[in-house]
Amino acid sequence: MAAPGDDYDKLTPEQREVRDAADRKREAEEQAALPYRWTQVLEEADVVVPVPPGSRSRDLTIVLQKKKLSVGLKGKEPIMGGELFADIKVEESTWMLEDQKEVHIHIEKVNKQQWWPHILTHHPKIDTTKIQPENSKLSDLDGETRGMVEKMMFDNQQKQMGKPTSDEMKKMETLRKFQESHPELDFSNAKIS
């Protein structure tokens, strides 16, 4: 992971690729060494904790609190536990024992606009700037959100080509109509913003 103030931005694209690959490898090794696996999307995270085969729910001690998570067997040291990276919605977070060998924990994040660098604060971080979210389809969005996203995409495309955005086009059209309906006014020296 590139530390702030290091020479990452001075590297060539090829050197960055090598550094990124090394960082991803180290990150993958660190994550593989954890006593659990985890995945996330912006709104939620899922954690899978292996437990001894044949475990039953009554054998487990699960703590799922606003800022704390712990999984273990009764009377033993927790398999994993500690402070969560950020607050969770406890009432919307759940856990279940699957096939008597894995505890599946579903965590609802309070801040649904934040990637977590780690589940527990004392564990190694991942580089959240390198997360590539799955593309959602425009057709998955409701009408109003879809319209807003399409407008943003159009405006971004127009800016990249040096052309006016949809708002600028509306202003130009309004001004053109006003000029047509008021031919007696001289707009030649007008500064329009």
Description:
This protein is an alpha+beta fold and 193 residues long. It folds into two domains: 34-134, Immunoglobulin-like (Sandwich), CATH 2.60.40; 139-181. Helices cover 28% and strands 20% of the residues. It has three helices and seven strands. A four-stranded antiparallel β-sheet has the order 1-2-7-6, with no helix packed on it. A three-stranded antiparallel β-sheet has the order 3-4-5, with no helix packed on it. The chain is elongated and about 90 Å long. The two termini are 44 Å apart. The relative contact order is 0.11. The model has no long low-confidence stretch (mean pLDDT 87). Required for nuclear movement. May interact between microtubules and nuclei and/or may be involved in the generation of force used to move nuclei during interphase.
Secondary-structure blueprint:
Blueprint: H1 13-32, E1 37-40, E2 44-50, E3 60-65, E4 68-73, E5 80-83, E6 94-98, E7 102-108, H2 143-160, H3 166-181
Antiparallel strand pairs: 1-2, 2-7, 3-4, 4-5, 6-7
